[in-house]
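During the second year of the project, the team shifted from modelling isolated chains to modelling whole assemblies. The rationale, set out in the original proposal, was that interfaces cannot be judged from single-chain predictions alone. As a representative example for this report, we include one of the complexes processed in the last quarter. Its constituent sequences, exactly as entered into the pipeline, are reproduced here:
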Amino acid sequence: MTAHLVITVVLVPILASIFTLFCGDMMRRVVCQIAGLTVLGSTCLIAYQTGHSRDVLNIVLSGWEAPLGIRLYLDGLSALLLLTTAIIAVCITFFAEAYFGVKARSGRLTFFWPLWFLVWAALNGLFLSGDVFNLYVTLEIINLAAVAMVALPRTHESLKAALNYLVIAFLGSLSYLFGVAILYTSHGTLDIQLLAELAGIDGPYILAAVLIFIGLMIKTALFPLHFWLPPAHASAPTPVSALLSGLVVTASAYMIIRLGFTVFAPLMHTPLTLLLGVLGGLAVLWGSVHALIQERVKMVVAYSTVAQLGYVFLALPVVVSGSDLAAMVWYGVLYFVICHACAKTAAFLAAGTLINVVKHDRIAQLSGAAQHWPMVFMAFGMAGVNLIGLPPSGGFIGKWLMLQAMINSGQWLLVLILIAGSLLAAGYIFRVLGIALQTSEDSRPPVPAPLQLTLTTMILAVLPLLLGVFSQLPFSLLAVGSPFGALP
Amino acid sequence: MAAATPSDILLCLLILSLALGVLGDANPFRGVIIFIVFGLVMALSWTRLDAPDLALAEAALGAGVIGVLFLVALRKQGEKDVSLATQRLRLNSVTIISGLLLIVFIVYLGALGVFSAWKTPGKGLVEPVYESLHLTGVSNPVTAVILNYRAYDTFLEIGVLYLVMLSVFALQPDEKAKFTSTEQYDRMLRSYARGIVPFMVLAAGYLLWAGAFRPGGAFQAGAMLGGAGILLHLSRPAMLLDMRGLVARLSLVAGFFSFCILGILAMLYGFDFLQWPSHLAKHAILTVETASTLSIGLTLTGLYASVERKLISPAIFYSGEEDNP
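Output from the structure prediction step:
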């Protein structure tokens, strides 16, 4: 029964995508809501069952065992990511409904919905996949659909950003695919678990690792390859920006962690990780400084994504210094990524709500805006708390684990970068809030922010704080099938 | 692995120099022509590697459809902005990264040459694929892999094609495209299309059927059908104009949807998702292949039609059109 339940979370969004292509406006809204809530319910059940039985689940597809067939792999990490994705996705669905409003009832914007559900299906497929080639296919769907959605506004900037994104995403895919081809020729299987057993360090293996990591680094926008991200994320319509910064980059970050600690686990104990760490550090500093000097809220949030993704790589050099520290890094990075997904979505949605009411997001002209739309800035601030890494947010727990691992292994440079990154994050968040909180003499009656927008934003902004306070449950879920067992 | 013959080396050199020619040529028109030749030579090399089905797809898609798309795009570009047509290859970040990837590729080739000398060749899945072939409902191992062993991947790949068409829909302007008068259509082309299209459809049907026991299958048949569609479209655009109509939409999702339905049916009868019980496998595979052929053919036609009708022409880059949601 569980196998069918797991396949539901891939199939239902796909069916929703097909149905929304044919439905009229009323039906489409019903389909969206039913599909969204069904997937949310299924993921809740999956997470509950996984946490309860404490077993990882291998689901055979097409009746063929690996290596001949493909299998899905469900452990605590997959279950937690499915659940987080479902919560974020349902919020984005309701947000988009209100944000696009009348415009999306007819014409080409209606095609946002099939695209959106296809991305959701592919995300779920990616988190469940146990096969390196299948991962490629799901990642490809995510990226292609994301490109199409970035181009939706059809303005000069958005088309340019979409084209850049397309080219760079293809380069990344190509590089990844090359690595997969090498893995297959040298080991004769594509299954992640079998590959992890067979893998030994030799020439083709290192090359495959380099190619796959280059591909994923491009998709995760690691420092020298980040230039495509801010324009693409900032020029897209807000629900799409939130989807890109919250979920799409999470997918490639997840793949790095997943492959890095299974197939490429032997390489994690070599100085190669040092290079990733250095690039991650540069990403943190570069992204944060740029976020500090942007003039638009969405650009600030987009550059913040570049910075925050740097942390995924920043802590990797610590893995060399023993399995206890490696476990802390594993848990820390994953928890950080999950909380970042919620907080970043909330930050973008807050910016979108603002655009919806003020019609712009230029920071300099936001003076006094917090008086009129307190809830929007409250949500932005709470998301900011997580992005900075202040307690009691989940981002704090993630960063704290990374920090402890760094201190225990004596990597003081990394510690400094982490602290500097957090201070800079405080800078760019408070800069926006500071201007918005000024008192202004503008006494015109403000346009109230639509409730549906504020509410979904608020839910996502509160979530990382809840993840910080009630961290017991998610951590025990993460421990199911973790390569390191429970957190030491 | 058999040793490389001089003609193989010649083929490799030809591919490399054509690729360099495509990238380096300052004249985009010449670049596109070289690209088409490049596609044909690639098709030749697939034949040399004993992969005639890939060769067919490469010739039809790589050289044919993509070449035509490039040419059309170029024509629109030429109408809009002539100065762009003479732009040289510039040293921007994309070229830098392509250069880096090229270096990685060369290193890989070198390393593979070094390591293949002492590394025992991997076993691969060739033996297990043949061992279970009698259970798959087809006798062509490639079809068995695509539509039985790894049907889930193919399901998602058909999803990618569906996605491509969705993206085109999402970027088309809402107003219906205007007809140009029918007089300018070439009589010659029309009578040619009248003669050849039925045969192309027949050939697509054969390729689809042949996929069960020899190279062929949905992708090749779809490419053939797409070619027929493009030919029809060229000679009488009015017929295939509204790709967003209900019938067109239904055919576009046919492949994807049939996979869903059969997968769900399999689960309802207690099998795994997308598992074909061996006595029904042939029918299941034929069903999804037929539906997919239709979708692939229509997607290719639709892609061409949308570029041809200026619906997603590159010209919108320079007109600064604004319709922000």
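Residues 82-94, 113-121, 310-325 of chain B have pLDDT under 50 and may be disordered. Residues 1-81 of chain B form one domain.
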